[in-house]
Each structure stands twice: as C-alpha cells, then as structure tokens.
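Hey L., structure's done. Input below.
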Amino acid sequence: MNRTEFILTTAIILFAAFALGWFANWLVHRFTQVRQSDVADLDRMSQELHEAEETRDQAITYLQQREAELTNQLTQTEAELRAAMDGLRDARRETEELRSYLQQD
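Output:
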C-alpha cells in the first residue's frame, strides 16, 4: 500500500466515521425532541392540578368552619340540656316536697 492509497483509505474511514456520528446525533435529537403538543399538555395538566389543589384547600377550609360551627352548636345544645335537666330535677324535688306536705296534713 503506497502513501496515496493510505491517505485515501484514511480519508474514507474518517468521512464514514463523521457521517455515522452525524447520523447518530440526528437520531438522538429526533427521538429526544419535545413536541409543542406535549408542552401544551403539561401546561394544561399543571393548571388543572393547581385548580384541584385550590378546590381541595377551599373544601378543607369549609369543613373546618363547619366543624367549628357544629361543635359550637353541640356545646350550646348540651348546655341547654343540662339547664333543662336541672330545671326538671328542681321541679321533681318541689313536687315531692309538695306531696309530702300534702300527705302530712
């Protein structure tokens, strides 16, 4: 193999390596490219997630307020029940006192 054949063979091998590298780069770029529709879908999903989180936070706040209202109402009802029971107990005691008074006469 003389010098000219060696240079020509080396040039062909280098060109083939360059072409193969360029083709591999093009394939990688082609398959890893992000489409505009994918970005739009991600934006839409992000917005829907944000809205769902806001709705959840509002629901939690509403439930906490409702729980506080019901707890307050229960406390008031229990206080009224205690007052009614105390009144009933006093009325029964007074009735027993009147019965015993009437039976003594």
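The radius of gyration is 45 Å. The chain has a mean pLDDT of 93.

-- N.
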